[in-house]
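Lay summary. Proteins are chains of building blocks that fold into shapes, and those shapes determine what they do. In this project we predict the shape from the chain. Here is one chain we studied, written as its sequence of building blocks.
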Amino acid sequence: MRDLFYAGPLSPEIGALLEQAMGAYADTAKAEQLLRQAWDEAPEALPVYFSLYKFYFYKGRLEEAEAAARAALASAARQGGFPEDYERLTPDTTDWGRYDSPQHFYLFSLKALAFIRLRQGDLAGCRKILAKLNELDRADTVGGSVIGAMAAGL
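And here is the predicted shape, written in a compact code that computers can read:
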């Protein structure tokens, strides 16, 4: 097992599926099939969620990217033992500063969700998510300020 994307352990088999999916990126159907296989075999592996929402985002399939990001948030919250609804979270909900934790992956996925909402044209939704991200990640460890700068330019 190895850690990937500070999101927890990943078995060599699942890591291999993700690498195969990256290698097959140009063949959308094949890459998606490999990602879905990884998710079927390891439904709580956070790096699989990361790979899914990035894949869908870069393929321009924003609704599916959003669904994958929201599923990532739900899984990270379950694993971290805190509510999945970001609106209910506070800086005191959990230790948001642990880089090797589901909490940090949650923050990273929240940033991804903000970017997806921005690309969908939902500036208000993006800003709402970023406001919460800024509250939870005051040190900007996941780079939410980058998305904030993009949103401010619109």
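What the prediction tells us: The first strand starts at residue 2 and ends at 3.
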